[in-house]
Write a structure and sequence with these properties.
6-stranded mixed β-sheet, 30% helix, binds zinc ion
Length: 191
């Protein structure tokens, strides 16, 4: 196959050279209104086109490559006093796979145990391209089934206004769980 970025021959959808050139992660931090930190790894403009593949048949592979280069490395270097559960926002399956479940799975490490299907949006509305007002008027209405750990990391692919993560955190807090922090591939405010 061909690398989707440089079009040279490659065994993966993004060749090793392009992964090294374009997907070496940085650490960016942003605080939500409730003071919980969101750590992200890429500038939005740098991976915008890759994130858009989630709606296509190569999305699964591209998200796996993004996760391997960022979240997986983060997880391997992460240490904590107890085992932490990572929970993806809305990891229900659309078109054969869940893009946030791929990200969550990559966090599996000595101190992080990914948990699946525990946080679901009952309102399947998409916030993509929608205003802050629209998001406030149309809550995702999360339901949280439970986690084995009291220490939680929340995972999503992108943060824009932060309203999805804040709604998810509010839902967890109703069950007396507050995330240690959140992880996203990219922060849309980080251009
Ligand atoms: Zn390439």
């Amino acid at each position: 196959m061909k690398c989707i970025l440089c079009e040279s021959f490659s065994f993966t959808h993004i060749c090793d050279t392009c992964q090294e050139t374009f997907l070496t992660p940085s650490i960016y931090k942003r605080k939500l209104l409730n003071n919980i930190e969101v750590i992200s790894f890429y500038k939005y403009k740098d991976i915008k086109n890759l994130l858009h593949t989630k709606h296509t048949d190569i999305g699964y592979y591209i998200y796996s490559i993004l996760a391997k280069n960022s979240l997986k490395l983060f997880a391997q270097n992460f240490e904590y006093s107890n085992l932490v559960s990572s929970i993806a926002i809305d990891d229900n399956i659309k078109s054969g796979y869940s893009h946030t479940a791929i990200l969550n799975k990559s966090l599996k490490s000595k101190y992080i145990k990914p948990e699946f299907n525990s946080l679901r949006a009952k309102n399947p509305i998409s916030y993509s391209g929608k205003s802050r007002e629209f998001r406030l008027m149309n809550p995702r209405d999360f339901s949280f089934t439970q986690s084995s750990s009291k220490n939680i990391i929340l995972v999503d692919d992108i943060i824009t206004t932060g309203s999805t993560l804040i709604q998810a955190i509010n839902t967890l807090q109703k069950s007396d769980k507050t995330p240690l922090f959140c992880l996203t591939l990219s922060d849309a405010n980080n251009q």
